[in-house]
Amino acid sequence: MKLIFEFARIAAFCFVGEVCHLVLPLPIPASVYGLMLLLAALRFGVVKLEQVRTAALFLTGIF
Predict the structure, then answer these.
(1) Of 22, 25, 36, 62, whose CB is crowded by the most CB atoms within 10 A?
(2) 17 touches 32 (CB < 8 A)
(3) d(CA 62, CA 29)
């Protein structure tokens, strides 16, 4: 169940990145927006690393 919530957190940042890509007129891919937002959330303590670590390791292992 923990893994599902971690995927949901990451997917939420990806979705917000897609919205930013649609709204902002910059030539930056939506995935980069999502990564920057997730990095900012991790940096400012909004999201703890333990809340996304397992899913992130799984996703990077696939690629």
Answers:
(1) 36
(2) yes
(3) 21
> 17-59: per-residue pLDDT in tens?
999 999 999 999 999 999 999 999 999 999 999 999 999 999 9
Within 1-63, residue ranges assigned H as helices are 2-23, 30-43, 53-62
> From the CB of residue 17, how many other CB atoms can be counted at a distance below 10 Å?
21
Would you say 44 and 31 are in contact if contact means Cβ atoms under 8 Å apart?
Answer: no
Q: Is 49 helix (H, G, I), strand (E, B) or coil?
A: helix
**Side-chain-side CA neighbours of residue 42 (13 Å):** 15
Q: How far is CA 6 from CA 11, 27, 39, in A?
A: 9, 29, 15
